[in-house]
Amino acid sequence: MDTFNGIQRLHMFMGWQCNVRCTMCYQTDFSDRFNMSPEIYRDALKEYWPHMKRVKIHGGEPTIMKNCIDLVDILTHYENPKFSISTNGVVLGKFWKESLLSNGEAINFSINAARKETYDQIVKYGNFDRVLGNIENLVSARGTGKNSLTITISTVVLKNNIFELDELIHLAHKLGVDGVKFGTDNYLTFNSKDKREQIHRAINAAFDAAASTGLMVEGLGSLSRGYGMNLDGKNLPQELLASSKPRQVCPIPFKSLAVDADGTVRPCCNTWIKAGNLNRESMESITHGKVLRNYRSKLSKGDYSWCIPNCLDNPRPSKTAIIRKYVSFFRDDPVRFLTKVRRKLAFKAASL
Q1: Which phi and psi (to 5°) does residue 52 adopt?
Q2: DSSP string for 291-336
Q3: Which residues make Cβ contacts (< 8 Å) with residue 350, sequence separation at least 6?
Q4: Which of 71, 107, 75, 106 is nearest to 91 (CA)?
Q5: Ramachandran quadrant class, 176 (left: phi over 0; alpha: psi -120 to 50; beta: rest)
Q6: Bridge partner list, 123
Q7: Residue of 204, 214, 86, 243 lying closest to 156 (CA atoms)
Q8: What are the residue ranges of helices labelled H in the chain?
Q9: Per-residue pLDDT in tens (0 to 9) along the chain, 352 residues
Q10: pTM for the complete prediction?
């Protein structure tokens, strides 16, 4: 029996500890109280690390989290696994720079704006100039070495930044990174009907910027479909068109798993479905368990009702999946769920 059941990649959600406060973030605790314990990433997954090809390390903010540093140190002892992180980019010290250049697969800088004044509206306790400097330094260091580190920047599309999408792409090109990622929030992404024509022009400008710079841009197609735009007949590079469309069958749950800070294992980072918990079960029993089998079977039949609708790899998003997701979160922790809802409502009201 295949001990790993085809799993080649792990998404490690290490906790919520963070050094900035983004206006659209709805987390309820930014301390290290709920960070993943060493018993999970060091002990329960010990036999998995030599066999993994990729490990995506999620925060919070990985660059300031001790358990993330410990995990990267563990991974460097093995030949196979390459790691990737997403960071706000405010802190990027010697350890992270050297580790990324020697054993990193990818780093994404979540900067959320193309202009300093917009950045300051969205990111509290951040430092736009320092972030850009850290990006430039890493790009320069990568250029002098023999590595294949991919460097990207990203933003969640909000009312504050939706009219500077093309600027973000041109900024990425100027910095020398490899691509740009646009994310959306089902509730917060700006969707004003009275400015629909302006938004269409902004998205078209972003497509033009992507085509002229040659950068790979993720999420732009999904964003444009959300605003009722038709991409048929657009004179765009095939690579950009391909990246703007979801795959017919999502391969991710057949090759990867998500591990949450509390030991919960999910078939994918874009589902609320739980396959098991490493505090009570072995990873082997989870990877061969009924939940993962059922999840994979549903995808094979074209059923994506257990998947979050705004996932870029979801070819058939279901609106009812959002309801199922929120019901699941409410059942798990009603107090925390309601606190998150209040945070989102407050931000939505403030941004109108």
Answers
A1: -80, 145
A2: HHHHHHHHHHTT--TTS-TT-TT-SS--THHHHHHHHHHHHH-HHH
A3: 23
A4: 107
A5: left
A6: 22
A7: 86
A8: 38, 66-75, 94-103, 116-122, 128-144, 165-175, 196-213, 220-226, 238-243, 252-255, 283-287, 290-300, 320-332, 334-351
A9: 577 889 999 999 999 999 999 988 878 889 999 999 999 999 999 999 999 999 999 999 999 999 999 999 999 999 889 999 999 999 999 999 999 999 999 999 999 999 999 999 999 999 999 999 999 999 999 987 656 899 999 999 998 899 999 999 999 999 999 999 998 876 666 666 668 889 999 999 999 999 899 998 988 887 887 788 877 666 555 555 545 555 567 888 999 999 999 999 999 999 999 999 999 999 999 999 999 999 999 999 989 999 988 777 787 878 788 888 878 888 888 888 787 777 766 665 555 4
A10: 0.88
d(CA 36, CA 259): 10
Q: Which of 194, 236, 232 is nearest to 214 (CA)?
A: 236
**Considering all CA atoms of the chain, what is the largest pairwise distance in Å, rounded to the nearest integer?**
58
3-state secondary structure of 31: coil
Tokens of 293: 């089998």
Residue 68: count of CB within 10 angstroms of its CB:
27
Q: Are 316 and 302 in contact (CB under 8 A)?
A: yes
Count of C-beta atoms within a 10 Å radius of residue 173: 17
Strand partners, 12: 57, 259
Report CA 27 to chain centroid distance, whole Å: 15
Classified as helix, coil or strand, 9 is: strand
Alpha helices, DSSP H, located in 41-93: 66-75
Q: Token digits for 336?
A: 């925390």
